[in-house]
């Protein structure tokens, strides 16, 4: 979720190729039997992401993770798995599906709030949970837990003098919710309605949504190629409810 809209269009343009990036092969068992693979180089991973349509300037490698489009985080391990899958070539015998949250977790995704989260953000977090819980026709559910041990997703404060308001992990290849949501304290004084939008957006990443709903829209006849008021657009807006396509996408991803 970003504050300025400088990269808004490029975010939309590259969505078409997101499907592949965030798809998975059920090749885990196969991979486990493989001999130690050659390590995937950073350059290889960058090339892979660039081939998926991402702007190289918005691919940032950190120690054990990569940050794409400012606020979407995936682990290096997951990225290496995707690169390895792509090297294996197309395999018509295996179905590919998006990394989303499995039924073991998606009806009650448990968030833990680290100490030190300002009251305004706690309000936004509770509001975002209420937003997602209010979507009709889906099995999706979320709640707050008071112990880190029982949580799926940890929420904590960070600070960077940058334009990301908050950032979140996508679900991993283990089909668990994204492991953390980090909030940038630089935006502690942003309007409450924008904070609510931002956290609702990040929780969308936590359950597997990318920027805009085009990925899912392709499954629906008559779906627009962009949805300017969607909560999953990358630029913050005042919260004004989910769009009808946000709701439809959620119902498709997490049917009742
Ligand atoms: Zn985002």
Automatic annotation (TrEMBL):
User: Which Pfam families does the annotation name?
Assistant: Peptidase_M57 (PF12388)
- InterPro entries from the xrefs? MetalloPept_cat_dom_sf, Peptidase_M10/M27/M57, Peptidase_Metallo
Q: Where is the Peptidase metallopeptidase domain?
A: 101-256
Mention one GO molecular function.
metallopeptidase activity
Q: Which GO terms describe its biological process?
A: proteolysis
Q: Which Gene3D superfamilies match?
A: Collagenase (Catalytic Domain)
What protein am I looking at? Peptidase metallopeptidase domain-containing protein
């Amino acid at each position: 979720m970003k504050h300025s809209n400088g990269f808004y269009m490029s975010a939309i343009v590259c969505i078409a190729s997101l499907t592949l990036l965030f798809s998975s092969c059920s090749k885990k068992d196969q991979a486990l039997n493989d001999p130690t693979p050659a390590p995937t180089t950073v350059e290889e991973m960058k090339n892979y992401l660039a081939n998926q349509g991402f702007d190289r300037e918005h691919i940032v490698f950190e120690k054990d993770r990569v940050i794409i489009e400012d606020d979407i985080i995936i682990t290096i391990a997951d990225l290496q798995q995707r690169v390895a899958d792509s090297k294996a070539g197309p395999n018509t015998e295996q179905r590919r599906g998006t990394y989303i949250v499995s039924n073991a977790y998606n009806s009650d995704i448990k968030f833990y709030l680290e100490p030190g989260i300002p009251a305004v953000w706690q309000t936004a977090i509770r509001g975002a949970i209420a937003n997602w819980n209010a979507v009709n026709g889906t099995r999706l559910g979320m709640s707050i837990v008071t112990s880190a041990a029982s949580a799926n997703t940890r929420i904590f404060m960070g600070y960077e003098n940058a334009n990301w308001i908050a950032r979140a992990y996508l679900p991993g290849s283990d089909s668990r919710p994204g492991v953390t949501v980090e909030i940038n304290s630089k935006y502690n004084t942003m309007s409450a309605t924008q904070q609510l939008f931002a956290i609702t957006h990040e929780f969308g990443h936590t359950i597997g949504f990318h920027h805009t709903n085009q990925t899912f829209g392709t499954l629906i006849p008559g779906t627009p190629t962009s949805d300017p008021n969607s909560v999953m657009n990358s630029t913050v807006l005042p919260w004004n409810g989910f769009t009808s396509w946000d709701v439809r996408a959620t119902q498709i991803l997490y049917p009742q």
